[in-house]
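call fold(seq) -> tokens
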Amino acid sequence: MARIGKLQRISFLWIVASAVGVYAASAQTMSSSGKEQSMATSSTTTPTLVRVTYGGLRVDGLNIAYREAGDPASPKIVLLHGFPASSHQYRNLIPALADRFHVIAPDYPGFGNSDVPDPATFAYTFDKISVIIENFLKLKGFDHYGLFVQDYGGPVGFRIVGGHPEVLDWLIIQNSNAYEVGFTPAWDAFRNALWKNRSPETEKPLAGFLEHDGIKGIYLYGTKHPELISPDNWESDFGFMQRPNARRIQLDLFYDYRNNVALYPKWQAFLREHQPKTIIFWGESDPFFAPEGGEAYLKDLPKAEIHRLDSGHFAVEDSLEEISTDIHRFYAEKVAGNPMGTR
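ret:
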């Protein structure tokens, strides 16, 4: 949190405290009542100009927006984004990887520039999103690839590769949780209130995460170099949050996240059985996912490589050079010519 304005810091901490404290305050009541975000922002530049293209593809009746770069004949990497972002969070990483890889980053339904179907008729669940993204990748010809997951990217990606292990060549994890030990107290109002009894009262403490200062805080909390993080991140995300039903969509996914936790043992078993070649980048000051969440992967993936970053939730924002360099090196040393499975 160094160098972030005092008022900004207080504002975001108040939102987190609300998610924690309101639950604590309401627990007694429920007990008594019986209710339960270009590399131009970085200190480095790309050695050559990389062309990034932007497109949309019809998938299951929806337009799925995406960013893409690199030679289609190169090894493929899929980048799956987190909350409250979109493929925009990878605007710097895509050109940084495109010299060696064919990179694609889609926007989930309801996020970024993808279609936003009405939640009254479209179920915003991680199951549904994963099916659409899996079909998107098939249509784009991504039949096997390296998978980069951050935050929500984990629940989406683990569902895809869990059902089809043959598509996974290798795994890159950045602050995406698959172990209960990885939850920080910011999750208390999710785990102990919303997931037990969804209501306007249990949704209210979480509303701050969907407002301007809350979204801004997610990007800035824990970073030592806020000057490297473009305000376009939170301004863009907050702009998308003004669309009809946008907050309802996010609250639906907040509630559905409980089903991810139920699948943690299955995902852990997948990792133990298949032992994908894995590199982990973990922002140690993430407000949502504790350092223990990154360390926990080593129990099931003892050969994984972990990089503990002095960063927050969106570590690519201020640790781009380190992440890009280590992805290139790891692929060359551990994956090239010897990916998961036989090809």
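The beta strands are 52-59, 62-69, 76-80, 102-106, 145-150, 168-174, 278-283, 305-309.
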